[in-house]
Write a structure and sequence with these properties.
The radius of gyration is 23 Å and the shape is elongated. The chain contains five helices and 16 strands. The longest helix is centred in the N-terminal third of the chain and has 20 residues, at 2-21. The protein starts with a helix and ends in a 6-residue tail after the last strand. A hairpin with an 8-residue loop joins strand 10 and strand 11 (161-167). Helices cover 16% and strands 28% of the residues. The strands form five sheets. A four-stranded antiparallel beta sheet has the order 6-7-13-8. By secondary structure, it is of the alpha+beta class. The chain has one domain (2-130, 193-251). The structure holds 2-acetamido-2-deoxy-beta-D-glucopyranose (7 copies). One 2-acetamido-2-deoxy-beta-D-glucopyranose is lined by residues 90, 93, 95, 128, 130, 212, 214.
């Protein structure tokens, strides 16, 4: 028992020492704005905040300075310069609404070659199971899912006639046990839970509204640090959370210690 406790103390001391060493207490990490989004831990605004204000996966690049007159709407901020464009961040339940630029800027027929799981290389962020799924099926050995709308993809890679339908549940691999799609070739794109598909033309609007992503396993309890009067920090080198407290002290969890 005594040995275990000492081990934990030694580990904590090591984490603390490493974090302190990286000097994460200089510039403030007060919440920043990009368009109408509030950027705060684990997100941080690349170019305007020090990298220690958040986790590397959650770097947000804001383009809202491109047109200072505001005449043309700036595109939503991208996540770490990727194809993911962030429309909303729900800090309360650790979720993000984002759309995939490649899906929005091209025809529905391109989605038939799309695999969201393989393009989401960003660790720590997962497509939420709460999403609905836009399902493309083709070459079905049975009749396609009821309510399917035909999409003519002649002329596209993997073209021919596809059928578009909406699944209330998003399953990244496609429907596992849906009898009516067995034998189909399929592709699935996540869309927001309450989406409705009335016509194949609804595709563009549905993908533009985005889909839900959830984050888990981000180190540290930022709410607790903040509640104790500190500012959250992330030391990418040490892969450790830190709480920057008044007077320039860096604590491993909260300022109360
Ligand atoms: C935030 O701005 C985006 C456009 O960048 C807009 O689509 C969205 O509705 C706005 N959200 C809120 C809550 O105002
Ligand atoms: C963020 O983008 C940079 C530059 O493109 C890349 O090197 C890095 O791996 C990305 N980080 C994450 C967590 O995706
Ligand atoms: C998180 O909360 C927001 C707003 O309350 C909601 O729109 C969103 O669907 C929730 N996210 C998940 C993954 O349930
Ligand atoms: C999508 O990609 C993932 C990861 O690369 C793979 O496991 C999965 O089988 C692919 N799904 C489809 C429908 O191709
Ligand atoms: C699909 O489009 C191609 C050319 O764009 C046309 O030749 C073909 O007849 C169409 N197929 C259907 C089923 O409408
Ligand atoms: C259907 O299967 C045929 C033969 O395997 C293939 O040539 C064609 O591209 C497939 N059509 C679609 C839409 O995937
Ligand atoms: C910390 O709390 C303040 C209000 O006390 C709030 O404005 C700020 O957004 C919080 N920061 C984080 C990262 O939650």
């Amino acid at each position: 028992m005594f040995q275990n406790t000492s081990l934990v103390l030694v580990l904590l001391a090591a984490v603390f020492a490493t974090a302190t060493h990286a000097q994460l207490v200089g510039e403030s990490c007060a919440p920043a704005a990009c368009g109408n989004l509030t950027i705060k831990y684990p997100f941080w605004l690349r170019g305007r905040q020090p990298a220690y204000c958040g986790h590397p996966t959650f770097a947000v690049t804001c383009d809202d300075d491109d047109d200072p007159t505001g005449a043309t709407a700036a595109p939503p901020p991208s996540l770490n310069g990727s194809y993911l464009r962030v429309l909303a961040i729900h800090y309360g339940n650790s979720s993000v609404v984002a759309y995939h630029a490649n899906l929005v800027e091209s025809s529905a027929c391109r989605a038939t070659r799309f695999n969201m799981s393989s393009s989401l290389a960003l660790s720590l962020l997962d497509v939420s199971r709460a999403n609905a799924g836009l399902l493309f099926s083709a070459n079905c050995s049975r009749t396609p899912p009821t309510g399917s709308l035909p999409v003519n993809c002649t002329g596209f890679s993997g073209g021919g006639e596809w059928f578009l339908s909406l699944n209330r549940m998003y399953d990244p691999g496609g429907p596992k046990r849906a009898v009516d799609t067995v034998g189909c070739q399929y592709s699935v794109v996540p869309v927001l839970p309450w989406s409705e598909l009335r016509s194949a033309r609804d595709y563009a609007g549905l993908v533009r509204r985005g889909f839900l992503l959830e984050w888990t396993a981000v180190p540290g309890d930022c709410a607790a640090c903040n509640a104790s009067g500190g500012e959250c920090r992330y030391d990418a080198g040490a892969m450790a959370f830190g709480c920057s407290c008044p007077g320039g002290r860096l604590q491993p969890a909260t300022c109360g210690e």
